[in-house]
């Protein structure tokens, strides 16, 4: 995997792809359409998004080389020859264009896919470089491509409120993700003189806004959760709340919304629900209804085992500590 370190896959493989898959699973459940009948379309869409994620990682590293050098921060592409950097970027763009060719004539999905590339380019590439332009640098992480392409492929319909809920949730959750990254990198940005939203303000003065963003995210997610509510999604929420309490009370994890402590164990609220409990509950719902759902569930766990294994590890550690007493 060292060959692909420049893609920074460890930073987005589960953290970005699983929430998008969870939205895909929930959309098909709301549309009452079997998952196994859209699996190939889902795989293609996932590949298209992965190509975009690689492109985002590459251009972000390329445009950050000088600033990372000043801050003493490792940059995976700093040792790559300029010509090879250009080849990598061109290859990503060519692959993205090829994906767009296969998405057409679904113009709505093509628009969402194209705009994802545009906003992430604007986030990193000068002279616009939204990353340096205060709050505008954090409004770049919502995507409705999967909802559009899967409903189009399955010839299903979902309500406008579903699109609105998914869009607002994606925006708020993406906003949290980018702000988390900016605050986490704040010390490096201050060293290099990089002006981001997070470097311009005192983190202690951001607590109120942090709560507002999280509240908007949860309000939007309620649309998704209520649309998919059943015994398994309710159980998954209860299990997640139990995990949060275990980590808080037994392991003294600090609960955070966006800004996380650098030197203390912590858990970002709702992350593990989006990454583990909710998608697995949706897949279990699909599995018990038939339609090869168990195969899809097993494939999901094989592709994205990291956060699930971490949850299991924490629960087992808690149980072992109780048995020793």
Molecular structure report:
With 325 residues, the protein is mostly helical. The protein has a domain at 2-228: Farnesyl Diphosphate Synthase (Orthogonal Bundle). It is 70% helix and 2% strand. It is built from 14 helices and two strands, in the order H-H-H-H-H-H-H-H-H-H-H-E-E-H-H-H. The protein has helices spanning 9-30, 39-63, 65-71, 82-103, 107-124, 145-154, 160-184, 186-192, 197-200, 207-227, 231-249, 271-288, 293-303, 306-324; strands at residues 254-256, 266-268. Strands 1-2 form a two-stranded parallel ribbon. Helix 1 (9-30) crosses helix 12 and helix 3 (65-71) packs across helix 8. The chain is globular. Mean pLDDT is 84; it is low at 136-142.
Per CATH, which architecture of the domain at 2-228? Answer: Orthogonal Bundle
Q: What is the CATH class of the domain at 2-228?
A: Mainly Alpha
For this structure, the quaternary state is single chain
Number of helices: 14
Give the ordered list of helices and strands: HHHHHHHHHHHEEHHH
Instruction: Give the integer mean of the pLDDT values.
Output: 84
Based on CA inertia axes, which overall geometry fits? globular
pLDDT < 50 runs, ≥5 residues: 136-142
The major pleated sheet works out as: 2 strands, parallel
Say how many strands there are. Answer: 2
């Amino acid at each position: 995997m060292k060959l692909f370190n420049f893609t920074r896959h460890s930073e987005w493989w589960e953290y970005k792809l699983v929430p998008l898959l969870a939205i895909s699973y929930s959309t098909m459940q709301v549309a009452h359409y079997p998952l196994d009948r859209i699996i190939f379309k889902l795989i293609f869409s996932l590949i298209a998004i992965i190509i975009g994620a690689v492109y985002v990682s590459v251009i972000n590293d390329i445009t950050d080389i000088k600033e990372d050098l000043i801050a003493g921060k490792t940059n995976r592409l700093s040792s790559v020859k300029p010509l090879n950097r250009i080849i990598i970027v061109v290859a990503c763009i060519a692959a993205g264009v090829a994906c767009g060719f296969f998405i057409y004539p679904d113009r709505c999905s093509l628009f969402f896919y194209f705009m994802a590339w545009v906003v992430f380019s604007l986030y990193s590439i000068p002279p616009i470089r939204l990353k340096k332009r205060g709050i505008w640098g954090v409004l770049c992480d919502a995507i409705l491509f999967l909802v559009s392409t899967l409903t189009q492929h399955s010839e299903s319909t979902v309500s406008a409120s579903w699109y609105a809920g998914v869009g607002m949730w994606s925006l708020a959750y993406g906003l949290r993700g980018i702000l988390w990254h900016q605050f986490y990198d704040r010390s490096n940005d201050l060293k290099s003189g990089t002006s981001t939203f997070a470097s311009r303000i005192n983190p202690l003065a951001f607590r109120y806004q942090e709560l507002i963003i999280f509240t908007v995210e949860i309000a939007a997610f309620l649309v998704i959760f209520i649309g998919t509510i059943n015994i398994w999604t309710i159980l998954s929420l209860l299990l997640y709340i139990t995990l949060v309490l275990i980590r808080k009370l037994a392991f003294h994890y600090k609960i955070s919304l966006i800004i996380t402590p650098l030197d203390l164990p912590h858990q970002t609220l709702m992350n593990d629900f989006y990454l583990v409990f909710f998608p697995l509950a949706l897949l279990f719902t699909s599995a018990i209804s038939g339609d090869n759902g168990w195969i899809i569930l097993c494939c999901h766990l094989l592709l994205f085992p990291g956060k699930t294994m971490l949850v299991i590890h924490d629960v087992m550690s808690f149980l072992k500590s109780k048995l020793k007493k």
